[in-house]
Amino acid sequence: MCAAGCLGNSYNVNVISGHCNGFATDCPGNQLYNALSTIRSYSAGPVAAVSVTGMSGGAAKSGTSYYTKGAATVSWTTVTPSAVISGFDVLVDGKAVAHTSGSARSASVSVASGSHTVQVRATHVRGATTLSGSVTLVGDTTAPAFTTAPAVNTRTGTVSSTAVPVTVTWKAADNAALAKGMATSPSSAAFGPTVTSWNTSARPGASDLFALKAYDVAGNTGGASVSRTPNIVQENRLTSDPPVPPALRHGAGPAGTGRPASSEPYREQSVRDGQDVTERTVHRYQHASRSPSDERRTDVTRPGPRTVAARPMSRTRPAARHRSPPLCFPRS
Question: Helix, strand or coil for residue 6?
Fold first, then answer.
């Protein structure tokens, strides 16, 4: 910028300037000369764009907060070169708890139970300081609890000699943040924090332990379990009713009334010496018009009955029917 006419005049020059600012030269070149303003800002301070980027080392994030049992490693970034940074301080609730050099970008801290604010403060070589935004770190040492204990109930499904379908139900909660649930017995499964039931199976005739664990975000765990033994009980019922006679079906009948017939079964037994030797199932069908009744009989008989007794049978039949085992009779 100087020429013969500049001799003896005064000019303001930046502390960081190029040779071309005082001499007839192109030094330091166009690229470096254009970067001089940035270099001046780095040199003058303060440290720019200090930001906490995350936490690790025992801390985990849920939502916008971090959770830990006590220890955490705080990480941060800045756009200012380390050469002009004197150091960093990590502040917990406004108090410095860790100090690092200007080249560091992380530090370890410990917190007590409860919610805390964490910030990073950077100090420039010229003494200016910059404070980052705050991040919430929650200290949590309380284990999750099962507010509703595990319960096991049978459910609809296919029953076999090795498996009975069951549903396990529960409810877990945490004082801070519940992370997940796990089943560890009789098989393994993973659940989200809002899941409260699990469809699985149990061994018939054997005691099974149904064990669950709940995890919070900080890493604390709580457990609960229950033991249950499912048993398969076969019902002793007739497989089906005898067919209704054609004359007594709906809309038929001697009276031609068109009203349905009703069936009232009862069972007759022939008894000899205190043992059943004859069993007869009798279905009597009566029209609503009170026309004469009809019977359908099913007999299993052995010779020599002496007395006959009759007792009513229940009209209620289960939804699922099972065939009765074969009848066995002693010889007379």
Answer: helix
